[in-house]
Amino acid sequence: MSYLQFHAVTKSFGVNPAIEVIRPFDLTIDRGEFIVFLGPSGCGKTTLMRMVGGLETLSSGKITLNDQPLGAPDRRRGMVFQSYSSYPWQTVQQNVAYGMRYRDDLTRDQKAKRCQEHLALVGLSEFADAYPNRISGGMRQRVAIARTLAAGSEILLMDEPFGALDAQRREVLQIEMLRLQREDPKTIIFVTHDVEEAAFLADRVIVFTKRPATILAEVNVRAVLGAERTLETRDSQTFFALRNQLLTLVRSTSVEEVIE
Ligand SMILES: Nc1ncnc2c1ncn2[C@@H]1O[C@H](COP(=O)(O)OP(=O)(O)O)[C@@H](O)[C@H]1O
Ligand SMILES: [Mg+2]
To answer: What dihedral angle (degrees, nearest 10) is formed by the CA atoms of 108, 111, 116, 122?
Structure first.
């Protein structure tokens, strides 16, 4: 049985003239796979994610989960965006708890316990009572991840989640994502335009063309680097070659922009 599947998904916005954003798009994602979408800005990556999240309609085709068509948003799919719009008047802990507001299956005590567990998972236990404006951007992104995980999402849709962070914080969170994925595997679709981030995190990278989005290449990173990634991975020749391969692909999609 296929887990998450796109079947000839297309999307156009507007009429007369309609803007074609996604050409018939087919992709099968296994349960627990870490997929990275890499491609020029404006090609349609966010649109595809929003479709998986149930936030955007499809013009044609369908998306299925366990062979069942996906519909309106539900807690199986959680989104993490570039900057987390937390509620400034709620503490870190309350922001995480907010993700469970529809979990009628959990008692108040179970929710509190789950909240604590997920704060510990992302290393924020000490900041449970802090307000979002008192913590760093990287920590706010961890709050967003904890909130989505606590909600019970089995699919994480991460749209340039570390895009607003500096290189050092970004690397810390990348390492953290890999650890989370080892401890409690999810199916992840992660958008980035950073080729190193793509190569470091992905099991498989899907490289997109310019709009309308089609798949330019699919790179099986796991087959090259293996499942385990450490900081040493980044210094290896294999990693360097992979990064260059991705960079060449990305450059070929765009003549106007210089991506480095
Ligand atoms: N609601 C919308 N109405 C009209 N055009 C849209 C809408 N959302 C996205 N687009 C267009 O679709 C294209 C793809 O957008 P997007 O999926 O955000 O790209 P990416 O995330 O790859 O940068 C862009 O040209 C964008 O302007
Ligand atoms: Mg986008």
So the answer is: -160
pLDDT, residue 259, reads 47
- The residue whose CB lies within 8 Å of the most ligand 1 atoms, and thus the one to mutate among 46, 189, 253, is 46
Which CATH superfamily groups domain 4-76+154-252? P-loop containing nucleotide triphosphate hydrolases (3.40.50.300)
Instruction: Please report which ligand is nearest the Cα atom of 160.
Output: 2
β-pair partners for 206:
37, 218
193 backbone dihedrals φ, ψ, rounded to 5°: -115, 15
Ligand 1, residues at Cβ distance < 6 Å: 13-14, 19, 21, 41-47, 211
What does the domain layout of the chain look like in residue ranges? 4-76+154-252
Higher model confidence: residue 237 or residue 169?
A: 237
Q: How far apart are the first and last CA of the chain?
A: 39
Q: Is the pLDDT of residue 71 over 80?
A: yes
Q: Residue 197 has what pLDDT?
A: 96
Q: How many residues does the chain have?
A: 260
State yes or no: pLDDT of 57 exceeds 70.
yes
Write out pLDDT tens, residues 95-147.
999 989 888 999 999 999 999 999 998 889 999 999 999 999 889 989 998 99
Distance 9 CA to ligand 1 centre (A): 15
Using alpha carbons, list the distances in angstroms from residue 56 to 93, 158, 235.
30, 16, 40
Query: Distance (Å, rounded) from C-alpha 176 to C-alpha 197?
Result: 13
